[in-house]
Write a structure and sequence with these properties.
Its EC number is 1.3.3.3. This protein is α+β, with helices and mostly antiparallel strands. It has nine helices and nine strands. Strand 7 and strand 8 form a beta hairpin.
Length: 288
């Protein structure tokens, strides 16, 4: 079997992200259909980046998903004039002279769902493939942010996440879970953003197809597991006080994304589409 070229790898990654985007939309619409006969609103938007690349965003607003965003992007260009961008892209892999005059390429899928019910947790998932010079790697993760913690949901989520990770490498789950707990932490609040999950970067084992398969499994995990959690909680009644608390909890989500989130910084530093970058923000939020 011939070794895959970098162009082949990039094409395979982009095609998978697009396929997953369509599958997730179908799964979310299926949940909406089970809950209500009213038709949710779905917005589609293509965007282009003047320096190279672009993306396709989907926003779903319904009776279960207050706002779900699914964005796929493919961007490329020169990074030598932006040292902060290098730091976001893990500059410890490179030195300035080595990347002089070279270009980066990055593609990924980002999914964030903010739910109508305070008893259905918000979810975030992203996976990406990045290449620069002769270096390339995968990154990504998935995590839950409930308004009210539910022990059954938490155990179900993490048990299935461990099982998925263990199929690839038994070191993945404990390592990536710890990285998730450390990353999704609001230092100025001294509190975690949610109940965690996994967070990984710099995955390049030397077996590209194995690494790609793992990244695909993370996306399939969201597709298979999250709708189960949604459907067993979406029929629960909730009060206005519980809704108010949900809006306050969302404030923490916004704070994290604006202060700490690498994806937000990367998108802004590469002149990505602002609406697609801010897609992760909840539609309604409060602070006191």
């Amino acid at each position: 079997m011939n070794e895959l070229s970098m162009k082949d790898k990039q094409k395979m990654a982009v095609n998978w992200f697009k396929e997953l985007q369509n599958k997730l939309l179908s799964a979310f619409l299926s949940v909406e259909e089970k809950f209500s006969s009213s038709v949710p609103e779905v917005q589609y938007k293509d965007w282009t980046r003047s320096e190279g690349g672009g993306g396709h965003s989907i926003i779903l607003q319904g009776n279960v998903f207050e706002k779900a965003g699914i964005n796929v992007s493919e961007v490329y260009g020169n990074i030598t004039q932006n040292s902060e961008l290098l730091s976001v892209m893990n500059s410890h892999k490179f030195n300035a002279s080595y990347v002089e005059g070279t270009e980066f390429w990055a593609s990924g899928i980002s999914v964030v769902a903010h739910m109508c019910s305070p008893f259905v947790p918000a979810v975030h998932m992203n996976t990406r493939f990045i290449s620069i010079c002769d270096k390339n790697w995968f990154g990504g993760g998935i995590d839950l942010t409930p308004t009210y913690e539910n022990k059954e949901d938490e155990e179900f989520f993490h048990a299935n996440l461990r099982t998925m990770c263990d199929r690839h490498n038994q070191k993945y789950y404990p390592k990536f879970k710890q990285q998730c707990d450390e990353y999704f932490f609001l230092h100025h609040r001294k509190e975690p953003r949610g109940i965690g999950g996994i967070f990984y970067d710099n995955i390049n084992s030397g077996d590209w197809e194995s690494d790609f398969y793992y990244t695909k499994e993370v996306g399939k995990f969201l597709l298979d597991i999250y709708p189960v959690i949604v459907m067993r909680n979406m029929y629960k009644s909730w009060s206005q006080d519980e809704r108010e608390y949900q809006l306050l909890k969302r404030g923490r989500y916004v704070e994290f994304n604006l202060i700490y989130d690498r994806g937000t910084r990367f998108g802004l530093l590469t002149n990505g589409n602002p609406d697609a970058i801010m897609m992760s923000m909840p539609p309604v939020v409060k602070w006191k």
